[in-house]
């Protein structure tokens, strides 16, 4: 059984969670349609450590997990308010 370290609930079975994609900074509200299309539909899909949005389904608690896509190892998890203005975790 794979365990996810939830910042709210502690270690939980991974089946209680859903991943909703990479954490990215959105374009400005007045950005071009092309910029919004790239933001909405294109992903880097890189090998290595990525920051992703995850949700604990029973509580609907959203948080960020850093995960290595090569090994599927969860490096760390933290709440979204721990992001700084550049989009990096503190």
TrEMBL record:
GO terms for biological process: tetrahydrofolate metabolic process. Signal peptide: none annotated. It comes from the Bacteria. InterPro entries: SoxD (IPR006279), SoxD_sf (IPR038561). GO terms for molecular function: sarcosine oxidase activity. This is N-methylglutamate dehydrogenase subunit B.
């Amino acid at each position: 059984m794979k365990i996810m370290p939830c910042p709210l609930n502690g270690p939980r079975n991974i089946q209680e969670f859903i991943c909703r994609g990479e954490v990215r900074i959105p374009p400005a509200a007045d950005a071009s349609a092309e910029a919004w299309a790239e933001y909405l539909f294109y992903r880097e899909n890189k090998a290595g450590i990525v920051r992703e949005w995850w949700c604990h389904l029973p509580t609907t608690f959203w948080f960020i997990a850093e995960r290595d896509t090569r090994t599927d190892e969860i490096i760390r998890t933290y709440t979204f308010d721990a992001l700084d203005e550049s989009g990096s975790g503190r």
